[in-house]
């Protein structure tokens, strides 16, 4: 079930950070066990330095290769996950083509030492930096020693025969395997969105839905129907069923949407921010011959969602 939010640490720009810092460098998308091992290196035995996560934004591959890099956790979603790990601020390093041209030496001198005033830098064993990713952890340690910066390197983690990675989490979500994705993260996968006006067809069918406007940088799971928990305005969690994807029966040409129907509860949600925690993938998208058959199928989805969520509460 959705837990109560905790106080959040600040999201800071470079000109507003608290220094000196003990840095964990990386994107830390998904905050899996390997990420948490790196972060622990930046919080333990660092004296008076401020434990800080520093991440490039946007992702370097977006700038250099035009790739779309959707995030499991957007920066503001990540704040309340970092605080229990001992981090006291999250800093986004603005990445552009000029930044990409920095040599490893310039990156350490200008960014880590002058701007971030790092006394400790923690990275994963596969960390690369500098123009063309030419710098590795050995060079980082060498340059750190030159500047009096302690560099700590966390080994990669393996689960069975596979490396624990953000890619594995995304792959599980793409398949609708929420249990596997959540096993790899410290916190169940969630998405947030503001309720915007829809066509009102769900209400006409007897299944009113809240249509969510979700940040376009958010990684979404497999399209289909889910049992889920919903929290709104600090209340909940409420049981719900979610449809993620297009509407093949109603309007096949319409773009994908995120629609949530609260089970056995009526609330005015327009304009409010909803947090949705998908619990189980129920079925793929289907096209029905008419709206009556669609309504009947939604009823079956709702009943299945009730059973799934009730088993969670009882269990």
From TrEMBL:
Keyword check for Metal-binding: no
Keyword check for Kinase: yes
Key words, A-Z: ATP-binding, FAD, Flavoprotein, FMN, Kinase, Multifunctional enzyme, Nucleotide-binding, Nucleotidyltransferase, Transferase
GO MF annotation terms: ATP binding; FMN adenylyltransferase activity; riboflavin kinase activity
EC supergroup of this enzyme: transferase
Family according to the record: Belongs to the ribF family.
NCBIfam families noted in UniProt: PRK05627.1-3, ribF
Protein name, per record: Riboflavin biosynthesis protein
Source organism of the structure: Candidatus Synechococcus spongiarum LMB bulk15M
């Amino acid at each position: 079930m959705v837990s109560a939010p905790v106080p959040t640490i600040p999201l800071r720009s470079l000109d507003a950070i608290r220094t000196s810092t003990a840095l964990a460098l990386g994107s830390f998308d998904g905050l899996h066990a390997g990420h948490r091992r790196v972060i622990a290196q930046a919080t333990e035995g660092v004296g008076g330095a401020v434990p800080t996560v520093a991440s490039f934004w946007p992702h370097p591959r977006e700038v250099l290769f035009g790739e779309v890099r959707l995030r499991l956790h957007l920066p503001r979603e990540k704040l309340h996950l970092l605080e229990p790990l001992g981090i006291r601020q999250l800093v986004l390093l603005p990445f552009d083509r000029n930044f990409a041209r920095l040599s490893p030496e310039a990156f350490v001198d200008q960014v880590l030492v002058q701007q971030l005033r790092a006394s400790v830098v923690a990275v994963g064993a596969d960390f690369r930096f500098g123009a063309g990713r030419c710098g590795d952890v050995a060079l980082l340690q060498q340059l750190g020693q030159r500047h009096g910066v302690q560099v700590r390197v966390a080994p990669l983690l393996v689960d069975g025969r596979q490396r624990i990675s953000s890619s594995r989490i995304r792959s599980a979500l793409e398949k609708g395997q929420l249990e596997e994705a959540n096993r790899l993260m410290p916190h169940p996968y969630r998405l947030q969105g503001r309720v915007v006006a829809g066509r009102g067809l769900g209400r006409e069918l007897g299944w009113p839905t809240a249509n969510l406007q979700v940040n376009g940088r958010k990684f979404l799971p497999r399209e289909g129907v889910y049992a889920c928990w919903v929290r709104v305005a600090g209340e909940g969690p409420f049981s719900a069923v979610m449809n993620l994807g297009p509407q093949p029966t109603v309007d096949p040409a319409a773009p994908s949407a995120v629609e949530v129907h609260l089970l056995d509860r009526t609330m005015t949600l327009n304009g409010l921010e909803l947090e949705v925690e998908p619990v189980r993938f129920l079925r793929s998208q289907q096209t029905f011959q008419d709206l009556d058959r669609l309504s009947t199928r939604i009823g079956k989805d709702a009943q299945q969602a009730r059973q799934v969520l009730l088993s969670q509460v009882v269990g």
